[in-house]
Structures are given as C-alpha cells and as structure tokens.
Amino acid sequence: MHGLRLLIADDDEEFAELLAQRLTRLGAEVTCCGDAGACLRQFRADAPNAVIVDGHLPGNDGLWLARQLQASRPDIPLLMLSGNSDQSFMAAASEEGISRFLLKPCSFAEIEAAVREAARPTQLSAHHATAKIEASIGGV
Fold this sequence. Notes:
The protein is an alpha/beta fold and 140 residues long. Helix content is 54%, strand content 17%. The protein has one domain: Response regulator (Rossmann fold, 3-Layer(aba) Sandwich).
C-alpha cells in the first residue's frame, strides 16, 4: 500500500481513526472526514487514489457522495461500508460507482483486503507510468 493516498468518509470518528492507523501502518497515506461535504472538499484538494465511504453520513449520504466523486473522477475506486443490507440500497450503491460494498460489521482484515484489491490497478498504473518516464529519460 506504499504510496496509496486514501480518503475515509465516516462519521464514526473512533472507527475511522482506528482504520486509518491500521492502513497507515501498511504504508497508505490516510485522511479522514466526518461528513460528505468535508470529504468532497478534501477529495478535490488531495486527489486520493481510493475512497472509503460510509453509507450513512450526516447531511448528504454516502450515495450522494459517491455520485459526486464519480462525476469528478469516474476511475476512482470507491468502497462503501454500511450496515444497510437492503438489496435496493446495495443496487443503488453499485449504480453510483461503488466498486466494493462491505456490510458492517466487518473486520479490519476484510477492509484491508478490499483496499488492496481496489488499489491494485492504481498502483500498477503508477508503476507503469514511472517505468515509462524512467525509460524515456534513459533513452535521451
């Protein structure tokens, strides 16, 4: 996860901080936000590689946030954590661009695995771009 910039939008500050600490120990740079508006502002300022979104946030919910994030960057991996097991909610999350839906309660290990999976294409793309730059510099 080294080099991964991750944004977490969750109003449960204690949970978000614990998750951030675990992901930071694995090499990710993590920023936490407690509501959708703050997350959207942080997203625009930091350009993270992936976002973890709580399904129910104060103010605008996680589906609204996912819609906004996808409109800004359709390629951004979005993971949703939610206690809502309603099939229509899960389908709506998928329609809004959520690439992985995890039902709460879930383990930190499950979240870490989902983040690794979501980050894989991003890290490969970054590695490929770096290799192309190094090759072009070496070929000059």
